[in-house]
Amino acid sequence: MATEKQEFMKDHHMYLIKVRDADIFLKYCIPKYVEESRYFHFNEHIRDVIKNHKLPVDNCIIYKYNTDDTVKCLGIDDGFEEYHNERTRLFNKRHNIGGINMTKVTNRVEVNGYDVEFANFPNGETNLTKDVYTEILERIKAESIEVKFRYIEDADIVRLLLVSQFIAENTSSMKPKKLIIKFMPYSRMDRSQNGCPFSLSYISRILRMLPFEDIVIWEAHSAESISQLKNKYVRVTNRPVTIEILQYLKENNLIDDNIVIALPDAGATARYSEFLDKNDYEFITGVKNRDFDTGRIDSVTFPLGYDLKGKRVLIIDDMSSYGGTFNKAVKGLKVLGAETVDLVIAHAENSIFKGELFDHVNHIYTTDSILTEDRYPHNLKFTNQLTVLKESDIPQLNYSYPIL
User: Fold this and answer.
1) pTM (predicted TM-score)
2) Are strands 312-320 and 340-348 parallel, antiparallel or unpaired?
3) Which pLDDT value is given to residue 99?
4) 176: domain CATH number?
5) DSSP string spanning 174-222?
6) How much is the mean pLDDT over the chain?
């Protein structure tokens, strides 16, 4: 009969981190499903673990436990060669079953409530297996079709194209079809400067060719995301997810009437100030101050003399990467006496875990639109500072606002 430890080891890999020439040891476990994710980078992850425990990165040895309780040395100076050889062996085993890569990708495209499972052929091309396209055919018999698209990587655009064109070939052009885009791909690349590619425009041309007359974007980053998609055949609307999160916080008593909303720049002010004013929120507007030589943001300042002493402040905006602007906004709000500062954003990139954002904000409220690494072991330390809402959590408001 398997021991409790053996049962645990079926689903986990266990490592021992030892400091050379010292009696300092650290045991560390990683779920196997996390390690096998294409987004997981063991070298970077284990170095973060060592740093977080304030151990000397360049003076540690890594051992991996086997299921029979033996260990093998991986080292930390040899690039984890043994580890990566094992990863390669597992990858090859998992990706060549019956001539088809059976690693499933889900939670990217949903057709009338069906979460489409994508497989790959051995050369990496996307494969819609028979059971999958049979289920899609069944779902699109409904009176109308709603497709939800979650963009995580460029391959997801191909996945959406395949499903959408399959739908177009198997339904009447008169049947109502709606596309919901949880994050507009390449929305940051919304202009061409100094000859750089206008990537948003290129992606929009592809999406316009799909068989949808109604497109909804979750919290579009700029007006270009709307205008590039819209034409006389396609109606495009923006879903105000950030203020829907704000509404969620209010309905669940996570904020009270004494909260002060901070708008970090002109874009956020144009987007949210009308709603905040109509709903009697107290809010304050910030200004980005840039270094004209480098173009970088030096600071975010708010009106001097505004008294925030002892108050809780909530910054709201559409998205964040490393969070540099918000870090500077928090500093500006603390100058005015703010006691704590939380952040509400519709979209959080995985890079929020790599910057200093959690050192500055008290709590982040966001959605799972593009965030995928919040349950990775090395990010669990942020659990008490992060709330990730799913679509079912968020109240849908019939409201639109200007987007710059």
Assistant:
1) 0.75
2) parallel
3) 41
4) 3.40.50.2020
5) TS-EEEEESS-TTTT--S--TT---HHHHHHHHHHTSS-SEEEEES-SS
6) 85
